[in-house]
Amino acid sequence: MRFSFASLLRNAFSAHTGWPEQWRSPEPKAAYDVIIVGAGGHGLATAYYLAAEHGITNVAVVERGWLGGGNTGRNTTIIRSNYLWEESEALYDHALDLWQDLSQVLNYNVMYSPRGVMMLAHTVHDVQVSKRHVHANRLAGIQNEWLSPEEAKAFCPPLNISRDIRYPVMGAALQRKGGVARHDAVAWGYARAASALGVDIIQNCEVTAIRRGPDGAVTGIETTKGPIGAKKIGVVAAGHTSVVMGMAGLRMPLESYPLQALVSEPLKPVFPCVVMSNTIHAYISQSDKGDLVIGAGTDQYVSYSQTGGLHITTHTLDAICELFPMFRRVRMLRNWGGIVDVTPDRSPILAKTPVKGLFVNCGWGTGGFKATPGSGHVFAHTIARDEPHPKNAPFTLERFRDGRLIDEAAAAAVAH
Amino acid sequence: MSQTFRRPEGGRIKRNKPVAFRFDGRALTGYEGDTLASALLANGVHLVGRSFKYHRPRGILTAGAEEPNALVTVSRDAARSTPNLRATQVEIYEGMTAESQNRWPSLAFDASAVNDLLSPIFVSGFYYKTFMWPAKFWTSVYEPRIRAAAGLGKAPELPDPDRYQSRFAHCDVLVIGAGPAGLAAALAAMESGARVILCDEQAEMGGSLLSDPDVTIEGQSGRQWSTDVIMALALSDRVTCLTRTTAFGYFADNFVALAERITDHMATPPASSPRERLWQVRAKQVVIATGALERPLVFPENDRPGILFADAARTYLNRYGVMAGRKTVVATACDSAYLAALDLHRAGVEVPAILDIRREGGALTAAARAAGIRVETGATVTGTRGRLRVASVEFGHVQADGSVRHDAVLPCDSLLMSGGWTPTLHMFSQSRGKLRYEEVTGRYLPGRSAEHERSAGACNGTMALGAVLDEGYAAGENAARAAGLATRGTKTFAVAGATTPDGQVLGALPHDRNPGRVKAFVDFQHDVTAKDIKLAVREGFRSIEHVKRYTTTGMATDQGKTSNMNALAIAAGALDKPIPAVGLTTFRMPYTPTTFGIFANTSRGDLFDPVRRTSTHDWAAAAGAEFENVGMWKRAWYFPRQGESMHAAVDRECRTVRAAVGIFDASTLGKIEVVGPDAAEFMHRIYVNPFLKLEVGRCRYGIMCRDDGFVYDDGVVGRIAADRFHVTTTTGGAPRVLSHMEDYLQTEWTDLKVWLTSTTEQWAVIAVQGPKAREAIAPLIEGIDLSKAAMPHMSVRMGTILGVPCRLFRMSFTGELGFEINVPAAYGKAIWEAVHARVVALGGCPYGTEAMHVLRAEKGYIIVGQDTDGTVTPDEAGVGWAVGKSKPDFVGKRGLARADLLKPGRTQLVGLATVDPKVVLEEGAQITPDADPAPRTHAIGHVTSAYHSAVLGRSIALAMVERGRSRLGETLHVPMPGGAIAVTVVDPVFYDKEGGRLDP
């Protein structure tokens, strides 16, 4: 049933008893054309575009827990494309393009809200790096502009631009098209649309092995719900990608870290945009519901634990209270953690692998949500055609062997 | 009308201390010891808030931290305004101003209550299904209106003037909660000689004993027993008692965070006192005694003001002397509500009926009837009436087939409900303990522990007071023993007059109404009804996490304390699964909302991050220097004279160094002492340069790569002895270089005998640069022959300066003759002043980091992190000569051999000369072959450094450009918003290419 105000109204007369399931919850078939491992945003988007754009509808998405329950449902939903390198610019801007009408395409309100993403510079070095991004983006046709501290404050009135704070704001890079979206809705919207096209989403189904034929090519997977055959498998398992790829004998250049976030109690509208500070580790926006949504930096040590240390939360709130001193009386409502998979160059891997029929989409680190539509779109292309889309062609696994890195961290001098 | 619902006697409030306060502008009075909720109820005020979505009138539901409805903003002044406080936790003080929230124009008449009429449309998740057409309207129309309607209270607009503190503490036993179980536990631990911290979120310790008039413990009243125990604990110097202190987070290794609220209850807080204090407690053992929370009954229209939890009403009566109403109906599935009914009845409140959903009633049914109260068993509420306050209750009897037959309407002014008790598992669950589900009682309880903790009392499922005390005492005793203390054994308490609150119900109750239309609330704040949860299940949301997120149940500011179990039961019913198969959402910190300021506490201004200052900082400040932040350091940026601009100051400093001599504080450079028999071998491997043959007394400019082959850091290294190197690093790189070195020593080269010591702050480093550098320092130095022959460029000598031991380096980052004097930091200022006097006498001056940057750029010397960015090899950065070609291995050698790093076309460091010498390029600007590049043109490089050079009388720039070294003489373009700037590619050495000035 199509979602619209009219259908909502119609269903109100039948006390909403007429709504069908948003996605089916079938038992797995014996075999599919393609299996996607991981029903997060990227995995579900991949399945959707396989069906919608490549006509491959005999697809299963298998998920150990519940769909959208990993980083898709835990992140601070920042969307932007003002990356430094041309490869990244192309990939993330592709995603940004797809965000524009994603609600209409999926017929699911994902609440993409281009409120503007402002990245603060606090030192001379920050200014150099930010301006390099602004210049590179302008040349690449990607929106990004440099603001003086006064202009930054005009855009975000709560911002403290006093010269007396420890690391005064020396300026900011602003991408007006950047913003936020409703994370759960993205996963659910893709799930519903994919399911409607015939994709089977199989939750509570853990992959225990990857089966391979005599020629080394994949033939399917073993799961807690039994074996499922497929000639093509796309692994999109975020923090646990290394574990799944290990089943095919592949060692991934990934490290997994806990990343924390928190929300305040709901407040009346007080914060108009998204502000990021990579230097003092503060990431903040206000949700439609009114919560201040705040992200922290990663913990210092690798771990698979979805909680983190108190000192990380503390460090982030130090920075928030310094930049927005009126928020000192605001209260934290909930804090949580996720596991992010980080590559040596802080850019993702979206590629074929040395194992025939096995594809991988991982390594998004702390910034994968923004790429969800673009990532799914080009990964579906890669799986369907057995060759990468031009926009993900540089994001190979081999680049770590050959040295053709896309080092966004080095460019920013920090992990972000 | 003043406090007409206050009983003439009873309660623990101070009746001789009346307190005047305002609620929504209305002047009211209460007593010291009142919460805002008890004081409002004493004045007959039930309507205190509006719900989040439907803006339904809401009253005070509870008497504690779990309150979902009664949220208020309390303001002392414009800057000291705190939104979203629970009236049930706010203690009133003289002159307090409290306001209701999220209503307009008034609480009694709220325009947004129209949402309630639209509730047939505004069901769970409706916003995912609409607001999509026309597409543009989301950002311009729909979202702004949704945002304006959402949110609860308003954030203060001014910076918070209050202070917050943090304290670290250790103890043998931390007891969380000072109800009967916690008090008994703390008593046992104290008697065992343990160091104890006991905390409780309320203003007064005692928990449920404070509102129970009937029980006796060891022959005295429960209240007296608790008073005596609290006194004994308070008098012990081994026990720290913290009231108004919430344990809100439980972290690994028994690390527990407590939030102490110090001044919020005071009319005039002392200026010396912080508002709140964060306690970071590391406890050997923890006793969790957090009690249990009563649950609401899910019947139609269970949310009107005047409807509250039965035990809350009993607390208001017995602890505050306040009646929730004069005609009070009681609906229950649990015996504890009978206690409330009996107490109210005894206090003269009319109790028209107790409606007990249980077919047979409970342990106190006969007692209630004997007291003259009508009890209907097998009866349930089927609806309520009343706009701003409940006015009547409809009830019926549940038939054998599960249907409900309507019986009667009971007029009333209040309705109490109890669905049973939910153990408070937050701390246990946060500690990563595993929960277990007890089928018979429908409760989750603590299962296997993950930390050194134990639960006691109601949070452990133990409800009978005698058992609670015994279990609490045993827990305290066990904890003390586990902490290594001798204990006095267990103890049994003699208890009388206690009633065990048996009986409970989970989920929605049956009724005779249209199930698609009635609202039976599960989550009060978020307006989630039983039918919302069923809708979510119908739409395929099968995990409890999905149900939670789709309906938003449990996501309000009470985080589901009153709603989660009912929501879970309704979802399980709809899915036709047992409750444990549906799962439970994760408990996360904080237990209750916790002020941001308590985390940030003193970390503001200069205390935000430690400020590192060199020994000459104060001297430079007095000399008028401007400073810049470099990492945590404050570095002198330039030394402007009266009226001098930055540009003029930097030009003057640069010219002075080139013409005479300058003095510069280089102390912030990282310094590492590398010592040991294998020190040379270690240096040989960790740097790209050869180090084995470096002679003692000589220096080398070292380049360090990561294993990927990209430049990581650089610095001059001096060989002090055969087994000792003095390593310098970049200012920002010092910590990571030390880690990098340690990493290799500890994991890769465990065979090497080498020790590393950070000496960054042990040495003050004074650079003296310029043609008169030798002349400047010569008279001050003893024991070192400074002559060109005896001390060549890139050498290091030991001697003294003005009697102070020094390591004197002959080196240069300016291209001029230069020395760097290392002296123990304590002498830094004195030596600086002496050298400075000599420098000035020779026509020199101090210079700052900006002049240093210009001077080095004139010579084409790179700054790692500015001219390189972690993607640049030594060769590309123009320092390929440093790589030891014949070395068998070094960190980065394999990385450098990777295919892509050997490809032609990578970027290389070059100089850029603008065609117009007056134009200074912008650092970070891109470089293209065309003056007018088409959109999405590939940039062939970028500007890394750009300055005005006073000596050269023109601008200079360094850049990384693809195949840069093959482009010398080529004209390229730097596109800017106002048009491209033409540049010529030149050698990166702009000044003294032959290097003669280095070694005159």
TrEMBL record, chain A:
Its EC number is 1.5.3.24. PROSITE patterns: RHODANESE_3. Belongs to the SoxB family. One of its GO terms (molecular function) is nucleotide binding. One of its GO terms (cellular component) is cytoplasm. The keyword Transcription regulation does not apply. This is Sarcosine oxidase subunit beta. Residues 34-78 form the Rhodanese domain. It is found in: Cytoplasm. It comes from the Bacteria. Keywords: Cytoplasm, FAD, Flavoprotein, FMN, Nucleotide-binding, Oxidoreductase. One of its GO terms (biological process) is tetrahydrofolate metabolic process. Its cofactor is FMN; FAD. The lineage of its organism: Bacteria, Pseudomonadati, Pseudomonadota, Alphaproteobacteria, Hyphomicrobiales. Pfam families: DAO. It catalyses: sarcosine + O2 + H2O = formaldehyde + glycine + H2O2; sarcosine + (6S)-5,6,7,8-tetrahydrofolate + O2 = (6R)-5,10-methylene-5,6,7,8-tetrahydrofolate + glycine + H2O2. The keyword Hydrolase does not apply. It comes from Prosthecodimorpha hirschii. InterPro entries: FAD-dep_OxRdtase, FAD/NAD-bd_sf, Rhodanese-like_dom, SoxB.
From TrEMBL, chain B:
It comes from the Bacteria. One of its GO terms (molecular function) is sarcosine oxidase activity. This is Sarcosine oxidase subunit alpha. Residues 519-600 form the SoxA A3 domain. Residues 172-428 form the FAD/NAD(P)-binding domain. The lineage of its organism: Bacteria, Pseudomonadati, Pseudomonadota, Alphaproteobacteria, Hyphomicrobiales. InterPro entries: 2Fe-2S-bd_N, BFD-like_2Fe2S-bd_dom_sf, FAD/NAD-bd_sf, FAD/NAD-binding_dom, GcvT/YgfZ/DmdA, GcvT/YgfZ_C, GcvT_C, GCVT_N. Signal peptide: none annotated. It holds the Pfam family SO_alpha_A3. Belongs to the GcvT family. Residues 617-887 form the GCVT N-terminal domain. GO terms for biological process: tetrahydrofolate metabolic process. Keywords: Oxidoreductase. Residues 908-992 form the Aminomethyltransferase C-terminal domain.
